[in-house]
Amino acid sequence: MSELPRIHGIRAIVFDWNGTLKSMDEVLAQDMELGRRHGHTPDPEAIRRAWGGGPVMQVVFGTDTVDLDWARAEYDKLSPEFPKRLMPGVLSTIRTLRRTEPKLHLGIVTGGPRARLDLDMAQAGLPREYFDFTHSGAEIDADIAAGRPAFTKALGHLAALGLARSQMLVVGDEPNNVRDAQEAGIPHVLISSAGTMSRQTLIERGVLPAIIIPTVAVLPEILQ
Predict the structure, then answer these.
(1) What own/partner pairs with CB < 8 Å and gap ≥ 24 does 98-103 have?
(2) Where are the domains of the chain?
(3) Distance between CA 152 and CA 160 in Å, rounded?
(4) Measuring CA to CA, which residue among 130, 129, 149 is closest to residue 140?
(5) Among 12, 56, 86, 96, which is least packed, fewest CB within 10 Å?
(6) Tens digit of pLDDT for each residue in 160-215?
(7) What are the pLDDT digits (tens) for 78-92?
(8) Phi/psi zone of residue 97: left (φ > 0), alpha (ψ -120 to 50 degrees), beta?
(9) 107 strand-pairing partners
């Protein structure tokens, strides 16, 4: 691997959850089984593409019309059969980052519901107390009517601590993570090993990040 880039002055890291800290292997297996139990065998590659911002449940069930509340409830029923795991090196990396001086504020954002994030973290063995904040897409304040509310709440949390956006780092595996950071003027890193989008796809979508790294485990090396 070529020499790693260096990022200076970071005081807070906002992690995406799915595909960045949490492995998506079990999620794919659960999506496939959900479709099969309802009479449809989904295309795994189509599911992966939908994770990038497409209609996941429509792909899983093989229909254009799905009651999303019902679909999510059916998905959650299967969760105990598919306990979630972390991406390689995540737990040791988070422990290392927690020991960094001066203190790094660590947080997780996800578009999914709070209950699912809590269950995933418990199954994966990632303690909530390792993070200064966790925000889910279901937590929408009255002043956040649209967009990506979990990300917006994370920025508000860090701004209240007196941190400038140049002191924050967004770490994710999807174009949406990159786009959020770019629009907010925040340094960002893409995890290339975990995402559903290739480098060429990122170029085509105009969201190629400034820095691409192979795994979360190298973060302590680039934060100087």
Answers:
(1) 98/130, 100/220, 100/223, 102/11, 103/11
(2) 12-23+84-222, 25-81
(3) 12
(4) 149
(5) 96
(6) 899 999 999 999 988 778 888 888 889 999 887 644 555 666 666 666 666 888 88
(7) 999 999 999 999 999
(8) alpha
(9) 14, 133
